[in-house]
Amino acid sequence: MRNTNSYDIAVLGLGAVGSMAAWRAAARGARVIGFERYDIAHAHGSSHGGSRIFRQTLFEGTEYVPLVNRARPLWNRLERESGAALFQVSGGLCIGPEDSALIANALASARIGGFEHELLEPDELAGRFPQHAAIPEDFAVFEPGAGVLDPEACIRAAVRLATGHGAEIAPRTEVTAIEHDESGVSIRTGADSFRARRAIVATGAWFTDLLPDLALPLKVQRSPLVWFTGADRPAYRPERFPVFIRRSGELDGWGIPDVDGNGVKIGAGPSAPKPWLQRPEDNGYPIDERDTDPVEKFCAAAFPGLNPVAASAAPCMNSRTTDRDFVLGVTRRAPSLVLAGGFSGHGFKHASASADVCVDLALDGASDVPLSRFSPDRFSSGQGEGQ
User: Fold this and answer.
1) What is the pLDDT, as a whole number, of residue 372?
2) Residue 110 sits in which domain range?
């Protein structure tokens, strides 16, 4: 590897967003170097476990619609150019009471984005998707184009394409320090140093370790991945069982069909107790009942056809903001850095677009995707505080 001052963009972290940013920047002709502290597509962060939900019914808010509008064509392009199988269509469900924020916001985003969708009444939901426990008050927004992304395969494909476009990739290389000013960024990795005009910082749970001076209110939360099986396994394959989000009274969770024979992946929602971590490295301890009990409780209530005892489980974690919205953009306190973090457990579907926006900002200084809701500077003005 060469030490040089001639890089246009340095990408720090080659997980979901960083790998895509390296690809998109190199594809635009930029001179790119990318650093990853572990192997490519590793299992130490937030982008592993074989499956992630892609949906356009965005109950998180309509401000996410421009991102997902850019994301879907980029996922298709990544799949086409890499030749890798990355996406399976399963359809998607947002399930909850008709007057809930989940249903209202899912409908609003689908209508604004022009995404194909149906509103299913309780009897339609029960008839078409009987795997879910029937609750008389629950409606569902069904999105036929939703499905499942393979996170590890996506990351590997993006890194391959980035390398093919001339990017230099440095796995197993920990960035130990960043110095930044208006003229650019200096990066240290042990005894080596590098210079770039701009840096895209996408280091996930390690985000604040490198940038403590920005004092962004990010916290790291353990969020285990848990799989379940049942006697009628074909009923939970992608062609019959859509990805879902359910928020209905005490039923608060999400799930992904059995895409690989390992079972249905199910997670407990934000209301479930999940430990906060002092350091990302603290997430390495083995799965125990504190991880699986809330998910098994949800599974038992939501899916009468599944065995509510976890078939397997693995650690995962998320970097969360206080308002659960992304950190995506440039702060006035560090104009040579483009920040991409705090994805709060719902960022993978947008990763290709978030990366492309980062490259817009790094190369052009602006993007046509509105970013005010995601501005790093919203916290310095006192917004979004209070967990």
Assistant:
1) 96
2) 90-145+224-315
